[in-house]
Structures are given as C-alpha cells and as structure tokens.
Design brief:
Order of helices and strands: EEEEHEEEEEEEEEEEHEE
Helix content: under 10%
Oligomer: single chain
Shape: flat
Distance between the termini: 74 Å
Largest sheet: 3 strands, antiparallel
Number of strands: 17
Strand content: 35-45%
Structural class: mainly beta
InterPro entries: Peptidase_aspartic_dom_sf
Length: 185
C-alpha cells in the first residue's frame, strides 16, 4: 500500500457537502506509464469512486469525448459510463428536464403525445437534439405525491417534415379590415 504524504488541500463544491472538506493527504498512483499523486477524502456523499481534476487532465494531454463516452489520457483511451440523471418532480409542479431520445440522429423534431410515466405529462413541443444526444423537455407532475423520474425515457421524435403538412397564417391589416387567411395544404 502506498504511503500517504502530508500535503493536504481543502475541497468545496463536491458531493452534497455544505462546508469545505480537507484531504487526508496524497497517494501516488501509477496508470500505465503515468505516475500521479491523488488526494484522499473520507465520508463524501458522491456516487463515484473519485474525481479527476483539471490539473491532472491538462498535465497528461487528456480529452473527454462525451459523444463517444470515452476519456483519453496520454493516448490511452478509457471507456466511460455516464450515469443517467434521476429527477424528483414535486407534486403539482412543472419543471424542465434533460432526457434521452431513441432517434437523436434526426437533429430536431416534434415531441407529440408521449407520456411514458403515469401522472407525468410531457409538453408537446419542437426540440433540438443537443451534442450529447439529449433534449430538454417540460414535464408536469399532476399527482399529489413526488415522482422519481429516470431521464432515460426512450422518447421518439417525429421529424418536422412528417408533421407539418398544413399551415395557416392570419394577417390583420388594420382594425377596420377583415382577417385574411393564407393557407397551404
């Protein structure tokens, strides 16, 4: 077991800690040909085994590829598994969440009449797929209880050109002139 040196630092803004935490010190860890010192923290309420800091990433010419879920450190590629966010929607409230879609390759589309979870309504809307292959949507909890919602809802977008087949434009020219309708079918 490597020895912990006495160099300590104070961390803040990680996990759910309300106050800054002090490290116990650092230990050297070897990764392939790289050797780096990592700080050790105890009793952190965090769903991961550790955090890699910007200093490590820059010192080792690293690249995080969110689309392909990989981390490259000094030409060594590691697969990453990103956790899907889990949301708790308060009773009788509306909130915006980020979720996955089954067909992100279409780029943008319509979210129409999809409600995969009881007591949750999803707004019909036009959305643009973000670079991480996810979309932002508005959801409403219509129940009297909080609902826990996994963001992997497996929603399907409808391409815009498939739904927009008719449109009407109304022109109001003046208060005394009648409403004029321009239509395309």
């Amino acid at each position: 077991m490597p020895e912990i040196d006495e160099h300590t630092i104070t961390f803040s803004g990680i996990g759910t800690a309300d106050k800054p935490m002090r490290s116990f010190g650092r230990i050297p860890i070897k990764f392939n040909s790289l050797k780096y010192r990592f700080h050790i923290i105890d009793n952190i309420n965090f769903p991961y085994d550790g955090i890699i800091g910007n200093d490590f990433l820059s010192d080792n010419y690293s690249n995080i590829d969110f689309k392909n879920e990989s981390l490259t450190i000094s030409q060594v590629e590691l697969a990453l598994k990103f956790n899907e966010p889990i949301y708790t929607i308060a009773p009788r409230t509306e909130t915006i969440i980020e979720c996955s879609v089954l067909n992100p390759e279409i780029g943008e589309g319509l979210m129409v009449d999809q409600n995969p979870v009881d007591s949750i309504l999803i707004a019909n809307c036009i959305v643009k797929v973000k670079p991480n292959s996810r979309i932002n949507i508005s959801v409403v909890n219509i129940s009297e209880s909080p609902i826990t919602l996994n963001s992997n809802l497996k929603l399907k977008l409808t391409p815009l050109e498939n739904k927009i087949t008719k449109y009407s434009i109304y022109l109001i020219q003046s208060p005394t002139m009648p409403l004029t309708e321009l239509s395309r079918s």
